[in-house]
Structure formats: structure tokens, C-alpha cells
Amino acid sequence: MQRTVLVTGASAGIGCAAAELFLKKGYKVYAGARRSEKMAPLRDKGAEIFPLDVADEASLRAAASRVLDKEGSLDILVNNAGYGAHGAIEDVPLDEARRQFEVNVFAPARLAQLFLPSMRERRSGRIINISSIAGRISLPAAGWYHASKYALEAWSDALRIEVKPFGVKVVLIEPGPIRTEWDDTALVNLKKYSGSGSYAPLVERLTGRFRSGYREGAPGPEAVAAAILKGAEAGSPAPRYIVPFKAALMVSALRLLPDRLSDFLLDRLLNPRQ
To answer: Has 145 been annotated as catalytic?
Structure first.
């Protein structure tokens, strides 16, 4: 029987790569994104595409109804839609911070609420949440983004235990630097909110490291798509998959350091003394 998957944020990057991989593996793919016109190649390959604004309750309900009315249930939910509201915590307006949580945390939670009843009834299903190593470590000028990913991690950990008795599995995917459009949006916000003023020197230093980290030697979104597929198909999936391997090493190393030492190293890295 053909398995079904819904991928959010499927117009580009990780979401598009994941949808393409699921199509190649024979899945029935539902793909949603705000920019539905950019998903035409997915439609041509067999996906059912539709506009989806994850910050809008009516749009989330419509997406769930579209799938459930046709399929009765959903095998795999891939909560991929997200963005980075980068900038100094002092500079980013609270309305933007709230939107960050709306998209990165509450939208995945709402879709899970909409699909879990049918998953529990069938005693089968997977919820794959695309988090980030930003949910394991924190860097300056991205505090609201980190906070949203830490929240998604904690929420996923709780959900994983809650739904285990019903045969539903919850998996976190934690990408490190990946070559996608995501960094462009994050940089736009970084400069928009903190490109001038007290934090401008920090932003200038971060921008160079940001571009080198995301564009020099970073793998493409296909690497994350492979991890998503592994989480979808493994008989006993790991709670977390970090991509690429060097990101896993970095997370492990930083988490072993005392807070004072990690703060010292980050300060020296981002605020070099003359």
C-alpha cells in the first residue's frame, strides 16, 4: 500500500529535496508552501501541491482536511516550514519574535494536533520535526531563533513519550550549516534589525562567518532529505539525527565545555581584541 507524507515548506531547500526524495521512493506526497508556484516541478513529478501558510489557522485546517478527506489518515508528517528572525534580542520587535514562535513552534504543534487523532486510531504514524543544531547551542544575534528551536526540541521530546503507546513515533532532524535559501532570509533579518546601531560591529563580524559557514563546504539540502527519509523508514528511529557529521562533533564539543569557557571562546571568536 502506498504510504502518504505531508511536507511543509516544500517550495525550496530542505522541504523540496525531501519531497523529491519521497517521490522517488514511491510515496504519495502532499507538498505545501506559501509560494505554491515554486512547487510546479514537484507537481510535474507527481506531488499534490497546495498553498499553505503555517502561520494561519484556516490554512492549516485546510491542509489537514485535504489530506484526511482523501486518505483517511497520514503516515508521515514532515514539519519543515520555518525561518530565522535573526538580530540582537534588544532589536527584534516582539511582534516578530511572536511570529518566529508561531511559524517554528506553534505551526508544527497545530498540525500534530490535527493529524494525531487518525494516527492514534490506526496506531501508526510518524511526526518528523525539522529543528536545527540551533536547538542545542546558542549564538548571539539569533536569540529568538534559538529560543524557538529549543522550544521545538523540548516539545518534541515530550510528545515522543506521550504518543509512543499509540504506535506513533516522533523524530527530530537537526541540520547544521546547509546550502539553502534559509541563510539569505536570516541575513536579511539580521541586517534589517541590527545592521546599524550598537550591535552593528557584531553583525558585521557575524555576516562573514555566516556566509562562510553556509556556503563554503556545507552540504546541500539532499543530505538532510536523506536523514528525513531515514527517520521515516527506520524500524526504530533515533530520537535525533544531526546533519552533517561535523555539526554533531561541534554540538558534542560545545556541550562538554563549562558555560564560562564556551562563553569565553565565543567572545574571543566574535569580539577579537585589537
So the answer is: yes
